[in-house]
Amino acid sequence: MTMSEEIIIKDIIVGESEDYMINVGPQHPSTHGVLRLEVCLQGETVKYLIPHIGYIHRGIEKMCEFDTYSQIIHLTDRMDYLSAHMNNEAVCLMVENALQVEVPERVKYIRTILDELNRLASHQLWWAAFGMDLGALTTFFYGLRDREKILDIFEESFGSRLLHSFNYPGGLMHDVHPNFQKRTKEFLSYFRKKLPEYNQLLTDNVIFHQRSKGIGYMSKETAIAYGVTGPSGRGSGFSCDVRKYAPYSAYPVVKFEEKLRTEGDTFARYLVRMDEMVESMNIIEQLVDNIPEGDFTAKMRPVLKLPAGEYFQRVETARGELAIYLVSDGNKTPYRMKFRSPNFSNLFVLNKITAGGKIADLVAVSGSLDLVIPDIDR
Amino acid sequence: MQREELTDFLKTHFPGSVVREDAQYPELTVAAGDLTQTAAELKNNGDLAFDYLICLTAVDYKDKFTVVYHLESTLHRHLLVLKTEVPDRENPSVDTVSRLWPTADPHEREVYDLFGIRFNGHGNLQRLFLEEGYGFPLRKDFSDETRVLTLS
Predict the structure, then answer these.
(1) Which of the residues B27, B44, B50, B52 would you substitute to probe the A interface, choosing the one with the greatest number of A C-beta atoms within 10 Å?
(2) Residue A13 has what pLDDT?
(3) How close B55 gets to chain A, by Cα (Å)?
(4) What is the pLDDT of residues A236-288, one digit of tens each?
(5) CB atoms within 10 A of CB B99
């Protein structure tokens, strides 16, 4: 255990019971953000844990009630900042569906490519941090080195690397950079060579197997009952890919597989993400040479007012299903906007799958859920 | 089940409830007293099998609260919106569904935190994001003194 500096022994109950409580977080590096886990231990065994959240609650849902739809885009970046493009797209798709705007084919293709590039960048960072959580420091350098290449592509086209706000209701803010296709293809040929290194370093590593196999078991029934979506749910065999079941943008025209595993342990969730990286590259390859010419946006009114009613839009982010539930009263601001964020549901399964395991495995299991805390707190 | 089949099935199975067909997904509105029974039927009936609770939230319509459940069946892949209305603003409460769908546990806590709607039978109904005594910010009558600029 190297966590001793970060873990504060809160309370030692003296007497007959040998249980004691420790706090992991809110400043612990393995929680990847301000999340506090109150862990009840019996020796080294976790009896139960209680997540405490809200440290970075900004009231995004309340702020949305005062903002126009084009302003809301900029708030959604700040939820799951590693899936910023997908979050933006969810709002755009909802507004476009509500106003019955048909966006140009070019926009659909570019959006889908960017979705998958964003997913790749997110999975690379997850891989980098997951290895580091388990003590393999090299993964962090490998992952960030390759992620940088994607961020450079983003920077060239949008001017920003992390929080893009590049989608806009009706299309895109502006057209992509002329180098976009060339650099994306360069990246794909580069990363296809680098991915085997990832596998050599971690996937085929015996020490890593011993740290990740057979721990944090989640059955398919548990995944469904707790609403665990994304790669975490698919590692348990829960088929939940929104790209398959409610396809949007250019997903109907591409061929891809939903990667499923049935083992349900930490290693299965790891493998699903590794497979998804290959699948993302396959999707981009199908699209990048065929981006149709045309406008980068449909004609939109300067002030967007959605017809009164209720709307529900789902997209697949890098961590699972993001759903937006919107109630409009016909004004330019929403009456009520709810973000069903994937990490919120994914977090609360942690007690179920770590109880009974060892405290040393807690970091591996929570790392395999790939939590982004601002998405939980919103 | 196809959409028409589903709405017909709901109409015959839940005669006391309101089924709306013209919305994005079929909508079923039940009285707050029938919620537990209806939810259990939706989940356990093999033809419906709504086992995945996507989203649970509430809306403040000023004269009433509406608690909204988005349900999907992973077996049949159909979606349903279940709603129940809570007219009491002073002491709003609904029965919990967290025993049917464990994911409802944190979602109901969130609704309690932001709307002040109590969920009867919920084992751990505490504030989630905010501290005790903060008020319920997603209610329409919540006044936030820190918001100086308004969009108008």
Answers:
(1) B52
(2) 43
(3) 6
(4) 999 888 998 889 988 999 988 888 988 889 999 999 999 999 999 999 999 98
(5) 15
Whether residue A231 is found in the same domain as residue A357: yes
Where would I find the beta strands (DSSP E) of A257-297? none
pLDDT of residue A15: 46
Q: Sign (positive/negative) of CA torsion A200, A204, A207, A209?
A: positive
How confident is the model at residue A211, as a pLDDT? 87
Of A53, A239, A338, the CB nearest to B128: A53
- Whether chain A has a CB inside 8 Å of the CB on B121: the answer is no
In this prediction, residue B112 carries a pLDDT of 92
pLDDT of A283 reads 92
Question: What angle, 0 to 180 degrees and rounded to 10, lies between the N-to-C axes of helices A84-99 and A69-76?
Answer: 160
Check which CATH number belongs to the domain holding A344 and give it. 1.10.645.10
How far is residue A376's CA from residue B129's CA, in Å, rounded to a whole number? 10
The verdict on residue A240 lying in a domain is yes
CATH superfamily ID and name for B3-91: NADH:ubiquinone oxidoreductase Nqo5 subunit (3.30.460.80)
CA distance A82 to A371: 10
| Residue A3: per-residue pLDDT | 43
- Going by C-alpha positions, the residue among A376, A108, A110, A143 that lies closest to residue A273 is A143
Confidence at residue A152, expressed as pLDDT on a 0 to 100 scale: 92
Q: How far is CA A110 from CA A315, A343, B125, in A?
A: 16, 26, 44
Sorted by where each begins, the domain ranges of chain B are 3-91
Q: Which residues of chain A have pLDDT under 50?
A: 1-15
The values of phi and psi at residue A322, to 5°, are -100, 125
Whether cis (ω within 30° of 0) applies to the bond prior to A26 is: yes
Q: What is the pLDDT of residue A119?
A: 92
Domain residues for the domain of A98 are 60-377
Cβ distance A325 to B70 less than 8 Å, yes or no, reads yes
Question: Torsion over CA of B97, B103, B106 and B110, rounded to 10 degrees?
Answer: -70
Whether complex ipTM tops 0.90: no
Give the 3-state secondary structure of A21-36.
EEEECCCCHHHCCCCE
**Other residues' Cβ atoms within 10 Å of the Cβ of residue A305:** 16
Is A2 within a domain? no
Picking from B68, B77, B101, the nearest residue to A325 by CB comes out as B68
Question: According to the model, what pLDDT value does residue A17 have?
Answer: 63
Cβ A244 vs Cβ A237: under 8 Å: no
A67 close to B (CB below 8 A):
yes
Helix, strand, coil % in chain B, rounded to nearest 5: 25, 25, 50
Average pLDDT over residues B121-143: 86
Number of CB pairs, chain A paired with chain B, less than 8 A apart: 80
- Is A198 in the same domain as A120? yes
